[in-house]
What we know:
Among the domains are: about 310-430, Methylamine Dehydrogenase, Chain H, CATH 2.130.10; about 440-685, Rossmann fold, CATH 3.40.50. About 15% of the residues lie in helices and about 35% in strands. It is built from 11 helices and 44 strands. An 8-stranded mixed beta sheet has the order 37-38-40-39-41-42-43-44. Strands 1, 2, 3, 4 and 5 form a 5-stranded mixed beta sheet that branches. Strands 14, 15, 16, 19 and 20 form a 5-stranded antiparallel beta sheet that branches. Strand 35 and strand 36 form a beta hairpin. The radius of gyration is 25 Å and the shape is globular. The two termini are about 45 Å apart.
Amino acid sequence: xxxxxxxxxxxxxxxxxxxxxxxxxxxxxxxxxxxxxxxxxxxxxxxxxxxxxxxxxxxxxxxxxxxxxxxxxxxxxxxxxxxxxxxxxxxxxxxxxxxxxxxxxxxxxxxxxxxxxxxxxxxxxxxxxxxxxxxxxxxxxxxxxxxxxxxxxxxxxxxxxxxxxxxxxxxxxxxxxxxxxxxxxxxxxxxxxxxxxxxxxxxxxxxxxxxxxxxxxxxxxxxxxxxxxxxxxxxxxxxxxxxxxxxxxxxxxxxxxxxxxxxxxxxxxxxxxxxxxxxxxxxxxxxxxxxxxxxxxxxxxxxxxxxxxxxxxxxxxxxxxxxxxxxxxxxxxxxxxxxxxxxxxxxxxxxxxxxxxxxxxxxxxxxxxxxxxxxxxxxxxxxxxxxxxxxxxxxxxxxxxxxxxxxxxxxxxxxxxxxxxxxxxxxxxxxxxxxxxxxxxxxxxxxxxxxxxxxxxxxxxxxxxxxxxxxxxxxxxxxxxxxxxxxxxxxxxxxxxxxxxxxxxxxxxxxxxxxxxxxxxxxxxxxxxxxxxxxxxxxxxxxxxxxxxxxxxxxxxxxxxxxxxxxxxxxxxxxxxxxxxxxxxxxxxxxxxxxxxxxxxxxxxxxxxxxxxxxxxxxxxxxxxxxxxxxxxxxxxxxxxxxxxxxxxxxxxxxxxxxxxxxxxxxxxxxxxxxxxxxxxxxxxxxxxxx
Length: 691
């Protein structure tokens, strides 16, 4: 039986199942651990080892041996939501330095596996084990249970609390909401290199607004309490402490009144721990070195910007005696080793993939924002490591580099490990999609807007097509990339009878810091203007685009943009599907919203301009609002409040509530039928709109 594309797309989690991921380089660069689902439509993920000495790949933990994921602790469910994890089995793990001892959690149980023997066993740890991590020597495992940070020996003995607090609003060793959702810091403790102590966060959420997420489909269930820092409100009070295994804790001090955000922590062998802290207005960050015994810190670098200072993956980190960081200076995004930039201004640096004593491996775009390449810096200069056009990524440690590659000429990603001049492939068992996208990458209009245009694969020139804009359009997410998988869903939409246009306008990454900062205090003007300009420029290149039938769809920020489009530019857009839209910026979180719009109590007019609620009375086009009622990121209140305003104004609209669904829609039947329902809505909404 032939499986439809929507069903295949849903069951393969967008064709990501079966791809290797979550690589760890261990044993001085001689072994690589990674995760890979057992098949392209099997979400159960196993732990694998590639031994560079033998070149042999081996399954270390078979997920069939583990219980299902129905009984996950709340902390683990929240972690998976923050990192958009939709698989099961071993979905996260941590290893000792030698790659000999690995710990992971499964359904609240703490598991340890001895990699060489393959012996895996569940330890008698406290209930609800979360984020277990072996110490660097593989002797003990730290983990979080409830609000406590605990340590247990690898043999299962001596399970004890090392940090706790009697206050129910205080937890140890966990990342608070904005750290996990907005700063990409998903953990809250770090082992000392010698295993004698931990650095751990103490998170006090007493002052954070308490919200309740109910399940209207099950009124017999109690609502779930969520500490959610609404824009302008109090954040969690986060402190950092040295937690020795055999002595009292020591607080690590810095100017927390000026720098309340703890964005990065790292502790590498032979070096002082590195901290990156950030001001509430996000216009200043500091990189600090910590003296853990004295509980003090000293300033290594400070970065400031009149709008905001960006946080970057993989940095700061030590390279020899120098600190590696990424900073926006003089209109360019550059890699710094020590005090000096080591990359040319035209190279747009994206992330640090890893550093050792002699080199830094990083990713960057070189003139073409749709492509990402891997580069290496050493004292001899900067060299480009990857050549084929496309999107490349890397993980680097101890002289070994894991390279990943996705391009327009092949399905899925390709992975290989490079070390000492040799290369080892890492296999993928991802499914092959049932279609090959035919995307035309374009640079549209005066601003050379990056865009992708897709027509039905059976399109006959001269046949007018309704147009579907399919943007994200906001900060931190790029849609127009030189990788085939990105264009699978847009091509399926095109094959339903649309010309599909995806435009990355001002505010999206990949180009230069100034391009991203064009949206400061203004999510509405530049972002919406660029969608309109891109549409008109595309129509000049492709005369079959019917500008009297233009729809737009999006999710999250893209949902906000889609709703805004029909509310504010009904002269251009004739129908919209807004999935999980942020309709009122004051209902979103502190760290994201305040970066771009300031605090609502300081900038009430900015928030009013960027809210959609006051636009409700202007709706004159069909609009479908979709929202997961269990969403704890973009709360369902966003859609419900806009719907209420529309109803009060007498404006017809449609609302599709998704019961039990969060900000993700991993449920196979939901994900499949959601696509089909959207097609049906747009076809009806755009039918007969030749006027």
